[in-house]
Amino acid sequence: xxxxxxxxxxxxxxxxxxxxxxxxxxxxxxxxxxxxxxxxxxxxxxxxxxxxxxxxxxxxxxxxxxxxxxxxxxxxxxxxxxxxxxxxxxxxxxxxxxxxxxxxxxxxxxxxxxxxxxxxxxxxxxxxxxxxxxxxxxxxxxxxxxxxxxxxxxxxxxxxxxxxxxxxxxxxxxxxxxxxxxxxxxxxxxxxxxxxxxxxxxxxxxxxxxxxxxxxxxxxxxxxxxxxxxxxxxxxxxxxxxxxxxxxxxxxxxxxxxxxxxxxxxxxxxxxxx
Length: 274
Known about the structure:
The chain is mostly helical. It contains 13 helices and two strands; from the N terminus they run H-E-H-E-H-H-H-H-H-H-H-H-H-H-H. Strands 1-2 form a two-stranded antiparallel sheet. The longest helix is centred in the middle third of the chain and has 22 residues, at 95-116. The N and C termini lie far apart (50 Å).
């Protein structure tokens, strides 16, 4: 049976491929990750810190959720993957080196992605804003105001997804500009989108709050799981409603909208006012 550390979430796989640019993440390697038939995927998912004790760069302090998380994975061609995971090369391909490869390779793709696909955020916003609301949950969707991002991260004890928030919060201005354009056109898509994301969060939050547990304690203990569950549900909705967009593109757009919603306090809880 495949260990949890190798059971990658769909959002993780899509995001890895979206930010790969169809190219191996190793510097100076120009090998594509899709075969010449433009269909067959020839990329290899490499764990920066090993998936099992027998693997290279094993970290006993990590759990399997961290081991399978996006931040611990790098997309390589078959040749580079073989070199990186060759025991004789363990001293060469260190954790710090592979993390630097990942940062450098994905940074360029992250900051150019929306410029290459100007309609991407609009596609995702349309899909989520058209969800039919659940009347029972709708009454619980209260107006939320944005809090200082660092305060909210600490209050909810977000850990695993901190790099995601840090990476995508730079798009706040771009998505806010898109909302403004929609409002000028008389559209209620912004309101519907944020309300629907809040509704999905409330539904998922309920799965983690059990009888006898203090709600905020349960949320803090599961903050990263909640973020990823919301992301998975939004991804599923957007896939079904967006037939003309590549799955990798949608996964990227969902990540941007997710972080924006987090900053607007539609996902997780508001810090207590002093």
